[in-house]
């Protein structure tokens, strides 16, 4: 029986965070045997913000290592670097010609991010079209998305339907959102109204997968809470709510169980308990990462993303040839 295809990627804009792990990577590990998984490093997407070339190269390699360290098996999954498969950029141009300015201008992420930039690049505006190309190239059945990416998946579905209708062919499969059974949305430790992000200017707002134990504990001790000093899951206590979500995601305990366990305890002891359980979890990931981050594994890592690019290219080339034929481009042969 053919497995359903899942595609997902993370930008190499820095070391991955606890939010990336609990919200995405850990779930990828759980589904990797059940689905045909394509996991990529979204380096093309990352340059909507100016990057230092040397840092970007290093972060891309680190991302591959962190994928594997988190438990993604490179022998049963396709792991590749987005820029190694040129069909992503080529299909994005074709889709651009079927995309309306109004659709892109309504994207919430564009509105939010463009307000933080003095000169807004076309790439930031066009980001959802490249994301659509990523998804549609591989006949993806499902795409894991958080709330902040749902709009982008919807425009992908719209573009697929529009292209199929325009050229009267079922070239593109209409992807569905993949809703995981587990995986809380992890928020910033310093501003629990915002998602935990590696681009947070305040390093105390996020936990890096590679943070040492003492740094992890210290960051949790500094986590923003409130004056109630009661471990209770409430929308009026977003800081504590976030810490409970983290503790629950790692331990598997329910929210009522956690509230009972820490009944009568102050925030100080609860913060340390969350920090300890996070440090224990990341310790195993860091051990595998440190093993990979040595010269003897350089060839192994290159073989992994070279193999992944070859596999991805074979699929993407076939889909792009269908697209080119549909729009009327003559073949190269």
Could you please describe the fold and organization of this structure?
By secondary structure, the chain is mainly alpha-helical. The protein is built from 13 helices and five strands. Helix 4 packs parallel to helix 13, helix 9 packs antiparallel against helix 12 and helix 10 crosses helix 12. The longest helix is centred in the C-terminal third of the chain and has 30 residues. It is globular and about 75 Å long. The two termini are 34 Å apart. 38% of the residues are buried.
In short:
The chain is mainly α and 333 residues long.
Furnish the topology, listing elements before pairings.
Elements: E1 5-10, H1 18-31, E2 36-41, H2 43-46, H3 53-69, E3 78-81, H4 87-96, H5 101-105, H6 108-114, H7 122-136, E4 142-144, H8 150-167, E5 176-178, H9 213-221, H10 238-251, H11 255-261, H12 267-292, H13 298-327
Parallel strand pairs: 1-2, 2-3, 4-5
The biggest beta sheet is recorded as: 3 strands, parallel
Give the class-level CATH name of the largest domain. Answer: Alpha Beta
Q: Quick one: CATH superfamily of the largest domain?
A: HUPs
By DSSP (H or I, 4+ residues per run), the number of helices equals 13
Strand order of the largest sheet: 1-2-3
Helix content: 40-55%
Q: What name does the CATH topology of the largest domain carry?
A: Rossmann fold
Please report the total strand number as a whole number.
5
Secondary-structure element order, N to C: EHEHHEHHHHEHEHHHHH
Number of domains: 2
The low-confidence runs, each spanning 5 or more residues with pLDDT under 50, are none
Calculate the terminal CA-CA distance, rounded to whole Å: 34 Å
Shape: globular
Integer-rounded radius of gyration? 21 Å
The CATH architecture of the largest domain: 3-Layer(aba) Sandwich
Output the structural class.
Answer: mainly alpha
State which percent range the strand residues make up: 5-15%
Return the average pLDDT rounded to an integer.
91
């Amino acid at each position: 029986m053919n497995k359903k295809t899942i595609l997902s990627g993370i930008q190499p804009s820095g070391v991955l965070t606890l939010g990336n792990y609990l919200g995405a990577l850990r779930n990828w590990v759980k589904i990797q045997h059940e689905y045909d998984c394509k996991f990529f490093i979204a380096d093309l997407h990352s340059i909507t913000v100016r990057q230092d070339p040397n840092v970007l190269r290093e972060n891309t390699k680190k991302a591959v290592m962190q994928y594997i360290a988190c438990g993604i098996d490179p022998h049963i999954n396709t792991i590749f670097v987005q820029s190694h498969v040129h069909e992503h950029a080529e299909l994005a141009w074709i889709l651009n010609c079927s995309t309306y300015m109004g659709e892109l201008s309504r994207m919430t992420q564009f509105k939010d991010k463009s307000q933080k930039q003095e000169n807004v690049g076309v790439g930031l505006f066009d980001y959802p079209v490249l994301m659509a190309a990523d998804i549609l190239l591989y006949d993806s059945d499902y795409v894991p998305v958080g709330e902040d990416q749902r709009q982008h998946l919807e425009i992908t579905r719209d573009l697929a339907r529009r292209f199929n209708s325009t050229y009267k062919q079922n070239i593109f499969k209409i992807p569905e959102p993949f809703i995981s059974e587990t995986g809380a949305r992890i928020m910033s430790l310093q501003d629990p109204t915002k998602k935990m992000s590696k681009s947070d200017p305040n390093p105390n707002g996020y936990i890096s997968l590679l943070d040492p134990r003492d740094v992890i504990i210290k960051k949790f001790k500094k986590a923003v809470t409130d004056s109630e000093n009661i471990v209770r899951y409430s929308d009026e206590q977003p800081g504590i709510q976030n810490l409970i979500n983290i503790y629950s995601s790692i331990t598997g305990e329910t929210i009522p169980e956690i509230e009972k366990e820490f009944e009568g305890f102050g925030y100080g002891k609860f913060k340390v308990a969350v920090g300890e359980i996070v440090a224990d979890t990341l310790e195993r990931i860091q051990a595998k990462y440190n093993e990979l981050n040595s010269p003897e594994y350089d060839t192994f890592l290159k073989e992994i993303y070279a193999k992944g690019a070859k596999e991805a290219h074979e699929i993407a080339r076939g889909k792009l040839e269908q697209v080119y034929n549909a729009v009327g481009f003559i073949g190269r042969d």
